Amino acid sequence: MVWAQADRHHAIYSRLFLIGTSIIGGNNNTVFPIFSEIRGWDLNAINAVSGIACIMKAVGVLVLAKAVQKIGPKMLSAVTLFLSAALLIVFGTTQSMPVFLVMILVIGFLGGGYEKNGGMTLTANWWPTKKGVVLGITTIGIILMNIVYVPMMPKLLGSLGLGGGMAVIAVILVVVGIITLLFVKNNPEEAGEYPDGDTSFSANAGEILRQMKAYKSPFTLGKVCSDKDTWLIGLGSAFAFLAVMSYIASAIPAMMSYGYDYSLETAVFAVGGIFGIIGSFIFGIIDQKIGTRKTFLIYFVFIIIGFVFNLFMSKASIFCWLSGIVIFAA
């Protein structure tokens, strides 16, 4: 039973990551150029605000942290998905560029709800000692953006128009939100299961719950903000995320500027996405085996190698393939 519950939750977590990555960071090569061309808006300004929206997701993580404690990760995920769906309708239909830019920022902020506070908290609740492996599986949703969202959106917007295309994405968010409300449990206890699927938990459950209720965290907001590890972890994650998102946002325009055909660029992203699925799973296993810090260092090495290949993309198409495969695999 626990594995059926786990598979269901893994699938939903993966969808949360896919949605957040797509509608917050995945529009630069797909949606924004089309909106810019049809509406006559400045694409550079839109892309700049899109970058800020990724920062707004981090702001959303901080602001919505209390909400996840009060209403639980399931409800927070559903509510922020519903709000994002409503804003996508405005996003797709507004004729005002300022309103459009505000929608980008608010949608980015809400991603801190369902994708980060929601999905990450659910993962930690269900798999407290196996988070590495589970995240290796669920973060495959991030990679699926390149296989599903990037090639789909130009076709969708081309056939249904801007408003119709974004309405379809909004409906998908609503459906995922409803599925989350109906089938997701905040913790395994609500489903009659045990953390990590470990039935021995029941023998010590009473004592563990008593300790949890009596526990007083020594970390105040001031202590957290003054701790060097907070900033090292935050900046390290930020630089890694910045590097990967910069590649995703600029690789296709860069390859086009070098004279490569669009079919090559989409193929690199599609194949890279497949390697990303494999890499996500393998990095999860590595994390579980050697720890997060060492795994993160290996991840950085992969990113550096990928960007070295990236420097030579103009020389030969093989470097387009190598950079895409290595970066997405990480």
Task: Break the fold down into its secondary structure elements and pairings.
Blueprint (H helix, E strand, L loop, with lengths): L1 H24 L5 H9 L3 H21 L1 H29 L3 H30 L4 H8 L1 H44 L17 H14 L6 H6 L1 H30 L4 H29 L1 H19 L6 H13 L1
Quick overview:
The chain has 330 residues and is mainly alpha-helical.
Task: Summarize model confidence as the mean pLDDT.
Answer: 83
CATH third-tier fold name of the largest domain: Growth Hormone, Chain: A
In the predicted model, the low-confidence regions spanning at least 5 consecutive residues are: none
Give the biggest sheet.
Answer: none
Give the class from helix and strand content and strand pairing. mainly alpha
Estimate the strand proportion. under 5%
Q: What is the CATH class of the largest domain?
A: Mainly Alpha
Write the H/E string, N to C: HHHHHHHHHHHHH
Query: How many distinct folded domains?
Result: 2
Comma- or semicolon-separated keywords:
330 residues; mainly alpha; Growth Hormone, Chain: A; 2 domains; globular
